[in-house]
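Work Package 3 (structural annotation) set out to generate three-dimensional models for the target panel prioritized at the project kickoff. During this period the team completed the workflow that converts sequence records into discrete structure tokens, so that structures can be stored uniformly alongside our sequence database. As a representative example, we reproduce one entry of 405 residues exactly as it appears in the project archive.
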Amino acid sequence: MDTSPPERFAGRATDTSRGRAGQILSYTYFTLICYLSIGLPLAILPAYVHLRMGYSAALAGSVISIQYIATFLSRPWAGRISDNAGAKVSVQWGMSACLASGALLLFAALLHRSPIWLSLAALMASRLALGVGESLGSTGATLWGITAAGPEHTAKVISYNGIGTYGGLALGAPLGVVMEQHWGLASIGVLTLVLCGISLMVATAKKPIAVMPGEHLPFRDVLGRVTPHGMGLALGGVGYSVLATFVTLFYASRHWDGAALCLTSFGVAFITARLLFIQAINRFGGFPVSMTCLAVESMGVAMMWLAHSPRTAFAGAGLTGFGFSLVFPALGVEAVKRVPEFNRGTALGVYTGFSDVSFFLVGPTAGAVIGEFGYASAFLFALLCVLASLGIVVVLAARHEPEVI
């Protein structure tokens, strides 16, 4: 019996699958660059501001958190730009803002011999520009990928963009530490300028995707539909927020080395889980997957809280990353189902904005907890937040409604 037609069909299916993955990755690239720019100064700025510039631990945490004020406030705007002007425009503006952030970071480093407040002001401006760049770049890149690949690939696009997100952070954090030790803070500003400048040219050269026609829902309606899922994401993300913001100072308080490797452990475990279980959301549904992941994340955060050695903290960070890996896409898929297709850029912007709320509030809140009870208590605070997120998702799953057609 001649089997050549099925073989040819299977070959075409494999080629199509690979082509689709390559297409999605070509848009995920912009998310990777955004978060590489964020990751480069992430592990060094708290210690730089607290130990070298002489400011308090709370202000050191706020330097990280202030970025997410700008990100949160600009997320809805980024969604509207993506829906109305096109995802390409959003990405171009995002890369331009990240480029400006690199220039301001370089400026802050060069002002280190000037009055210290002037250098701090430039540093804060750099963080605000990076926040705007993050919202425009990542929201535009995600919607660009969904529109190009088709809404049936929403979970895959969000998952790939998450890999770009935490892959960029995992790569950027230790690279930033090495660069700062050898060449100073200015070198990070220069590298950010180069990466974002190249990426802006790549985005400009790419073909735009047609804007989806249709009547757009009022923003308050989108916000109301997405908020419960966003609350679950925000609380579930506190484990990572505390880890990213305070792990350097946590290690320093214990006189341990290798704090940046905790972020790498988180990122590697995060990416591994997404690659291994990327199809789980389509197979089992967003709510069951997110509940399982939050349970695993809570165990990792508990390990960080109880850690008495760098090995335990390293393992806890990895387990936290493995657990948190699919929370964003699992709840995100359920969130975007609640709005029509031509409103999904706004929905993605609003939904992702809740993770920015998590980062913004965690800095000063966990900093205050640390001031009262010590660095380990921040991870207990994170554990309680992750468990609260699990409770929200259980309620959402019980009240599950059909998606919007």
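The longest helix spans residues 4-42.
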